[in-house]
Amino acid sequence: MPKVPVLALTVSAAVGLLLTGCGSDPAPDLDETVLAAVDAAGDADGELDLISTTHFDWQKAVIVCPGDDTTEVAQAAGTTDGPVQGELPETVDVGTGYLVFVNDNQVTQTAELRLARADVCSQELPVADRVLSPGTALRVEPGTGDGWVVTAG
């Protein structure tokens, strides 16, 4: 049986751990994190605080609904310096809404939400009225089936 130097085994093991993420749990998916927070808020007092749900910097969040004009979303999410920069979600899926998080006029994160589970689009509001600041609480109430209706304020 050939002898393998200890250093080669050590390097091999270290590379294997790096490739598998050192055995640690992966970071939670933002979609699932938001949905879990919606479920918890609905089961509790009905108030969802996005600050305690998200663990990254953001200055505003925009509720994006099916059929929204992405130019209008970019304007509403932007600043006086211009529309927000970065990738905005496609709004063609009638069963999906989004929370688009913005920091320094850049899209930083987007949570994709199935409306059957967390209907953030039940209120027919202009996009400009669906811009949330970090202090805005969302209201979570029972919807149809097993879903929730999520509204601002």
Automatic annotation (TrEMBL):
PROSITE patterns: PROKAR_LIPOPROTEIN (PS51257). This is Lipoprotein. It comes from Oerskovia douganii.
